[in-house]
Write a structure and sequence with these properties.
- There is one protein chain.
- The chain has helices at residues 3-35, 49-66, 70-89, 96-99, 102-117, 124-131.
- By secondary structure, the chain is mainly alpha-helical.
């Protein structure tokens, strides 16, 4: 088997791996804001902009982790990260490495990709579509 065959056959599975890893890292931001873990100085009220962001990160990240409603959730989270970048990071500096927004940009485009490419085969969405037929 040549390299092209291997990479082509594994591409859908690696899409699932990208979704799972991105969701786990993203959820860590939500657990920090909402659950205080890992411990941080942040403890926003739930009915604030940061609280809403934390809920989206926690719940949206969990849905992406298991691959349920992946496309709409990924699209919503992509928009959240674009909003976060332009609201919280861009005013500090035009350079992402200086304004701390590089993760927001990366999450934004990874989630946008997932919104269009789908969750991959290792997801509840894929399981649901297989059992629908």
């Amino acid at each position: 088997m040549d390299l092209r065959t291997v990479t082509t056959s594994w591409a859908p599975r690696m899409l699932s791996v990208l979704r799972i890893v991105a969701a786990l890292i993203f959820m860590a931001h939500g657990t920090q804001k909402i659950l205080g873990f890992p411990a941080s100085q942040m403890n926003p009220p739930l009915l604030s902009l940061l609280g809403a962001a934390g809920l989206l990160e926690l719940i949206g990240g969990a849905l992406l982790l298991i691959g349920l409603f992946s496309r709409p959730v990924a699209f919503l989270l992509s928009g959240q990260m674009a909003f976060a970048y332009f609201m919280a990071h861009a005013p500090k500096s035009p350079f992402p490495a200086l304004n701390g927004g590089d993760a927001a940009i990366l999450f934004c485009f990874v989630f946008l990709y997932i919104a269009f490419a789908g969750p991959g085969p290792w997801s509840l969405d894929a399981q649901r579509s297989r059992s629908a037929f």
